[in-house]
Each structure stands twice: as structure tokens, then as C-alpha cells.
Amino acid sequence: MTGSASPATSAPAPSKLGLWGVVMVIYFTVAGGAFGLEGLVGSSAPGMALILVLVTPFIWSLPTVLMVTELSTAMPVEGGFYVWVKRALGRFWGFTQGWIAWLYGLVIAASFAALFTDYTSSFLKLAFGVTVLDDHAVVRWIVAVLLIAVFALLNIRGAKAVGDSSKLFAVMVFVPFIIMIVIAAVKWVGHPVPFWQPLTPPDTGVAGAFGLGLFIVMYNFLGWDGISTILEEIENPLRVIPRAMLIAVPLVIVGYLLPTVAGLTAGVAFSTWGDTVYFPELAQAIGGRWLGIWVALGGMFCAMGLFNAMILSNSRLPFVFAADRYLPPSFVRRHPTYGTPARSIILCAVIYALLAIGPFQTLAVTTVLLYGVSLILQFVALIVLRITAPQMPRPFRIAGGLPVVILIALLPTAIILLAIRGTVIDEGAQFLALAGALLVSAPLAYLILNAVFKRGAADTLSHDITTLPGD
What we know:
mainly alpha
């Protein structure tokens, strides 16, 4: 690892991702297609949904992308945001940030396994009239576990294998949506309708509609920092990360916007979106049963790509915890053939399998809140490092000096607070109890793991980085 002796140096170096592999991993860490956005239209109405899809990336995603790009090129180390926060704020806050990120990553990854079963069910019903996954919860869980096992094995083969498979999954997701968009556009030109109406649901004001959909769209645009945990598994990250972000940001926006616009031309009541109507049903209304089946199949590949990328990012956190002696040293050992943290991957896979039993809709708000806390710590680290380490090499540097950096940090922070306020007003504060319990688990875990495993030992991962690889 950069700046320190690498644990398990006898193992081979893991395979590395190139530019397009990184782009696809970022894409699937953040989006993976328009699937999952249906509830936004159902809750906020077409007009507000489109506004949120267009506006949110600039006030929520873009500040994160700039922060991640600066810190990734300043400290291109395995563990990414965990090391950045530790370098800026100390061990406790670094551990807290990493722990929170690991928790929400576990829930998100398990939800992707469950999402795979949802779209597999849609595919089976549309193609063959089979409802076995809807009728038998155990069968759904077995299908999710099989997905988890397959992609855990793929991840053990290395980041390059994940990147290469993500390219294939992207093709399988994009093609049916492109066909759906083209057919919808041709039909709309012949019979134009104001698909953007209404702006808000009946009896709901602009502010209310904005608040209703904000957590949904935030959830669908989070994850830009996930690529940071595998920075040492990227070929020339100093050059690749900025270029990959430049490609991935518009790709994610277009990948959400155009299928949503196409779906809105189908003439399906917006209030049913995310309740009984999803993109396969919309595709069927636009192009017929064959297109609905194809989009449902694309949903399966979307879930595969989402899970594949998430396990890649999330599994590196137990590995770096173990490298800093918060977990048993066995989790630092790399696979003898592929050089990957196989035991850390297996640990995460087992937890995903246990979590895949439960419903995740109720956890979306909690997940966004945990992610928001993690993100705020990263922005604090960005600001602190600008002050305490002004001479640190920064191949990509956010222009405008410290005032602009602070402004960029305040934008997503304000969005997080606004989203929490809106949710408390609409649904009550019950969700804060679960989020609070998960947040409190971080200092408790720090105390327990320090006492059981670390016992005052020095960190292995260096966070005092003053030179870049090759300098």
C-alpha cells in the first residue's frame, strides 16, 4: 500500500482497472440504470420528478465528485475515504467514517440482491407467467444467496474481473432502454402530449412535492465516493479518476432522465409508478410484451451490476480495518492466486446473505442519512487538509481556494438537513431512532475493537502522505 509496507506481501498484486472499467464501476456504484427511480414519479409527480433528476446532481452529486477527485488524486491509497478522514481528523473519526460507510454499504448491497429477485420475478411473470418468487419467500432468498455467492467469487478474482463484467452488464441495461426511448420518441412526435404534467401531485405544493421526492433521488445519486476504497487497484489513478468522473457524471444523469421521460409518454397514471407499475410494465405499454420482457431482463443485469460493484467497494473496508488492527489479521491475507482480500469479501457476502431476507424500502431514508453523515466527514476532511496540509500534492485541485471548497461542502450538507426536515414533517421522526442507533454503534465498535484487537498497536496503513507514487 502506498506509503506503507503492504500486508501479505507474498501474495501477487491484484489485477487493475483501466479507464472504462473504472467508469463502469462508478456507474454501477451510483446508478446502474433508471431502475429504482419509479417511486420518485409516483410520489412527486412528473414535473417535479424531472426537476429533481436535473437539479439534484449539481447540488448533491457534483460537490461530492469534486471532493472525491481531489482527495483521490492527493491520497491514492486503498481504503480511500477511511484514510482521508483519519489523516485529517484522527483515528477515531477515521474509524467512525469507515464504520458508518461499511454499515450503509452492507444494507445497500443486500438490497441490490433483493432487487435482483424483484426483477427476476418480473421477468418470469412477463415471459412465462411464473410467480414462484412472489409466492415463496424462501425461494426468493435462495435466488438472492446464489447471486451473492456468484459475485463474491467473481470479486475474489479481482477488480479487473468486476470491471470487465460491468461493461457487459451495462450493455444489457442500456440496449433495451435505448429501444424503449426511441419507440417512445417516435410515438410522441406523432402524438405529442405534455408528459411533464402535472408539476406536483393533487393537494401538494411545490415544496411538499420537492421534499417527498428528495430522499428518493438522493438515494439514487449517492455512491460517488465508493470508488475510493479500491484506488490501489486502479491503473494510474491520478490520471484515470478525473477522466472517469468526467464521463460517469453525464452518463448517470442521462441514464436516469431519458428512460423516465420515455416512461412518462406511456400514458400510465403517474400515481401508480413505484406501487404497481415499474419500468418493465412501462416498456410493455410503449413497445409491447417483448420489450417489457427485455427491460425486465435488463433489470436483472442492473441488479447484478449494482451488487457486483458494491461488494467490490464495500469489502475493502474490513480489509483496511484489519490492516490497522481493528479486526483479526487473517482479514489482511490476500488470495494466493488473485491477490485480493478474499476473507474480507467472504465476510461481507455472509452478512449480505443474512440481510437479504428483509424488506429495504423502509431503510432507504436511514441509508441516506448514514451516507450523509459519512459524506459530511469527508467534506470536513477536505477543508481541514486544505488548512493543515497546504503543500500536499494535489494533481486535481478544486479551483477558487478555501472559500469555494467550503461552499461546495455546504451544498450537500444543506440538502441532507433539508431532506431530514422534510421527512420528519411528512412521516415523523421514527426513522431517526434506527439511524441514531447505527451511528452510536460506531464509537462503541471503536472502543470494543480497540480493546479486543488493536490494544494500542500502531496503525499499519500510512496516512502521512507527502509524495505521490512515482515522485
